[in-house]
Amino acid sequence: MGLQADLKLVEQDEEGIDLAFRAEVLRGLAEPQKAIPARWLYDLAGSELFERITGLPEYYPTRVETRLLATHGPEIARLAGTDVALVEFGSGSSVKTPLLLCELDAAAYVPIDISGDFLRRSAGTLAAGFPDLAILPVEADFLRPVRLPDLPKKASVLGFFPGSTIGNLVPESAVDLLRSMRETLGPGSRLLVGVDCLKPVERLLAAYDDAGGRHRGIQPQPSPSDQPRAWRRHSDPPLSPPRPLEPRLAADRDAPGSARRCRIHRFGAKGRNA
């Protein structure tokens, strides 16, 4: 019982770089409208910054979801049944997880996150509070089906996907993600998803462009030598619901750059976004 060795399901090159990350960076920066999937923001530093953002006055989802779990935890536990294996997609700091684990008849907890360093640290912190619970971290990209570690026999599998992350996806991608989660969790499993309601544009923009400027600190993983960070800032485009909000990085001036011997002639300036 307790924290067990993590299962690492990412492919890396000899330099320890995630192959999928490198491929998506090169592909995205080669496009006329340069883009990198937002999930690659969440390395260790990005994950730590996001946890600070969730405590800001403008960022309401974490507070609301915490209240909902505290209120409805017993009902969720009743529906989940006994010997529950809780599988959390994009677990991050697992800060809301104890609210659920305290109510569930839990046999195991499987946090899945793409940021391995943050995953292991968060799992270790949680294990200190639940020493008798089997905690089985999995470092993986949950947008694709994930091979779960061996779970206790006869465990009831409950997927957990809080944070309204699914609202960041266009409908087609959201459906693909749910299908992938079904394949990960297996037949007879359940899935608990946190979904925000439609909100006024102004409230969403305030949550993602806070007065303290914390979101402007979010940067993708390529090293400073590849992309000079001093002239990058976080910004958000105008939004028309129900279209998801799209965080952007805007360059204040033209600059050459390179990524793994693939030359990128220009980043962003003059109204172009990277």
Describe the structure concisely for a colleague.
The protein has seven helices and eleven strands.
Description of the structure:
The structure is a single chain. The chain is of the alpha/beta class and 274 residues long. The chain has a single domain (1-198), classed as Vaccinia Virus protein VP39 (Rossmann fold, 3-Layer(aba) Sandwich). Helix content is 30%, strand content 16%. The chain is built from seven helices and eleven strands. It has helices at 19-29, 44-53, 61-80, 97-101, 116-129, 171-185, 201-208, and strands spanning 7-8, 84-89, 106-113, 134-135, 138-139, 156-161, 190-193, 232-235, 248-251, 257-259, 262-264. Strands 1, 2, 3, 4, 5, 6 and 7 form a seven-stranded parallel β-sheet that branches. Strand 10 and strand 11 (262-264) form a beta hairpin. The longest helix has 20 residues, at 61-80. It is globular. The relative contact order is 0.15. Mean pLDDT is 80; it is low at 217-235 and 263-274.
